[in-house]
Amino acid sequence: MTSEQATDPTQTCFRALADPTRRDIVRLLTRNDMTIAQLTDQFDMTRAAVKKHLNVLSDGGLITVNARGRERVNSLNPAGFAPVLSWLEYFDQFWDDRLADLKAAIEKDNT
After folding, report:
1. Direct distance between the N- and C-terminal alpha carbons of the chain, in angstroms, rounded to an integer
2. Count of CB atoms within 10 A of residue 13's CB?
3. C or N: which end of the chain has fewer Cβ atoms within 10 Å?
4. Residues 6+ apart with CB under 8 A from 34
5. Hey, how many other C-beta atoms are within 10 angstroms of the C-beta on 60?
6. Of 7, 13, 8, which Cα lies nearest the Cα of 61?
7. Could you give the CA distance from residue 74 to residue 63 in angstroms, rounded to a whole number?
8. Which own/partner contact pairs does 37-40 have at CB distance under 8 Å and 24+ positions apart?
9. Which of 15, 38, 12 lies closest to 25, judged by CA?
10. If DSSP codes are grouped into helix, strand and coil, which group holds residue 64?
């Protein structure tokens, strides 16, 4: 990964979402904020492995980690998904345009 890719929010967000375990963690965090211990209980992996996944999600801006006493609580950061949504908007517009062109062509043929 180039240094430009490492700092590109879209790249880091997609990298974070590329792994199915990280997507599962994101889904869990949509329901509740969770500690590393609570997340580890949901997976058949070590605490260290879960921590690595959380670091990637945090680097991608998809979660935040807050200290509450001695615990570190992981929370979903909905704003972190903005780079992905922005990237997908291009394709949303692309298909809207294509479908509008198809509709116009069909209507032209029917007249």
Report:
1. 54
2. 23
3. C
4. 28, 73, 74
5. 25
6. 13
7. 7
8. 39/74
9. 38
10. strand
pLDDT score of 45 more than 90: yes
Strands 34-35 and 63-68: unpaired
Torsion-angle region of residue 61: left (phi > 0), alpha (psi -120 to 50) or beta? left
Please identify which residue in the block is written with the tokens 């996944």.
53
C-alpha dihedral sign at 41, 42, 45, 49? negative
Closest by CA to 83, choosing from 1, 6, 8, is 8
**pLDDT tens across 49-95, in order?**
999 999 999 999 999 999 999 999 999 999 999 999 888 888 888 78
Residue 71 contacts residue 35 (beta carbons within 8 Å) = yes
E strands, 32-88, in order:
34-35, 63-68, 71-76
For the record, the structure tokens of 79 come out as 């704003």
Which of 17, 8, 35, 3 is CA-nearest to residue 81? Answer: 17
